[in-house]
Structure formats: C-alpha cells, structure tokens
Amino acid sequence: MITDELPGYVPVNASGQRVDENVVQRPADYCFDDYLEHKRRNGRVRSCYHYHLGDGCDGEECQYDHSEITENVLSVLCFLGQRTRCVYGGACRRVNCFFGHACHWKDFGGKHPECKFQDGEHGVDQTVHHWEMGRLRYDSIV
Questions:
Q1: Residue 68, Cβ neighbours under 10 Å: how many?
Q2: Is 108 exposed, middle or buried (0-12, 13-18, 19+ CB in 10 A)?
Q3: CA 40/CA 42 separation, integer angstroms
C-alpha cells in the first residue's frame, strides 16, 4: 500500500478508481447550526464550493454565495462537498477535487436513502494502489 502523497498526482486503487483520501468526518452539531444560520442570513442560497473549497469560482454570474464564512461553516462545506458526487466519479483526476468519488455514507449501510452516487460507487476500495498524474481542472467531460 502506498501512503505518501505526491503533489500533482491523485491516489488510485487497484481497479483504477480515484481514492478519496482524508475523508472528512461529520462536524459537530453546533457547526451545522452555524451553517444553517449562515444559509438563512444569505437567503437560503447555498455557498459556492468552488469559491470556498477550490481554487476560485469561474463564473461572474455564479448563483451561489461567496460571502465570508466561519471555520464552523467551512467544516460543514468540506463534509457536504465530499458527500456530493463528482461528475467524473472514480475517473476524476483533478488535483484537489473536493467532491466525492465514492459514497462514504457508512451510517446507512453504504447507501443513504437520498444518495446520488451510482451503484458502482458504493463499497469502493479506498486502498491507494498507485498515484496518477492529475489535472488542474477539467474544461469538458473526459
């Protein structure tokens, strides 16, 4: 098993699927309280993952919130981001992708009732087999 992170590379399992390293644990309830209060103050507009977690938001016409957030709200965004399916799934090679590439809802037997992950994205081996060169961003579907 390979465990040393390589800058510019993404971890991959033996089946060629991206491994989600550093899975974020569920933040404390008071963090979710802060998140909901932040969302209420901003007219229930969801925070922009790309702006707050990524390398910036590309869209001048972005419909999501870019206002300042607390560490508590940030911890919830990290948690929710990893539980939001990356459109590229296990094939994603984007460096520092903050979305999930496999379902991590273990409290529901690996399948949350409202899970958006595909069937093959549950119970994915999270053992790093090797590292592949990553991409900084995707401009189109791979």
A1: 8
A2: exposed
A3: 5
